[in-house]
Amino acid sequence: MRAIGGVWRWRHNPLRRRTDLAEAWVALSALLLICLVAPVVGSLVGGAAQGVLQQSVREQHESRHEVTATVVRRAAGSSLEADPETDTGREARTRVVAAWTAPDGTARHGTVLSGLNSPHGGDRFGIWTDVHGRPVPRPLDSVRATTHAVLAGLGAALLTAGAVEGGRRVIVWRMVRRRYARWDQAWDRAGPDWGRTGAGS
Fold it and tell me: I want to staple 153 with a disulfide (CB 3.0 to 4.6 A). Which of 23, 42, 75, 81 is the partner?
């Protein structure tokens, strides 16, 4: 609104310099770019990210399988650990030696993280594996993928707005520098006659 007011204020003002009107137009142009272009860029980036992430969700759900594992024993020196794959990253997990059957039917065993607080031999819990039964991270779900896409779109919109504002500041800075240079030249021309009675008349 200040940019629009600036253009209107300088339109017919007798004290207006060309740079004043130019600064107001630069500000108005930057405002329009931020209001119109930044949302479009954010929408395009968010849409592209959504497509890629949803494709990744489908591929992960096709290639990863949840199987039931059985605790053999608690892993040596294991303690509760935060699981980075959960939504909050704060859910406690315990390292255990477990056995499970892979989707291809082969028997597997190894050390994995379980969601059991105090695991005992024979306890059962779910883990994610690939087709060969190797433990893999939990597949990305659709809601989380959409959240990441929205954040990517917002980030792109904010970066675009920041770039436009940065460009506006650089342009105005250069205009002010040019104005100061012209003032210095004008003072240099007036300097020799300054303060002399009747000088220049």
Answer: 42
With 60 as the cut, is the pLDDT of residue 6 above it? no
Q: Give every CB contact of residue 57 below 8 A, 6+ residues apart in sequence.
A: 139, 140, 141, 142, 145
Q: Residue 81 pLDDT > 60, yes or no?
A: no
Cβ neighbours for 145, distance < 8 A, ≥ 6 positions apart: 50, 53, 54, 56, 57
pLDDT for 134-160, tens place per residue? 999 999 999 999 999 999 999 999 999
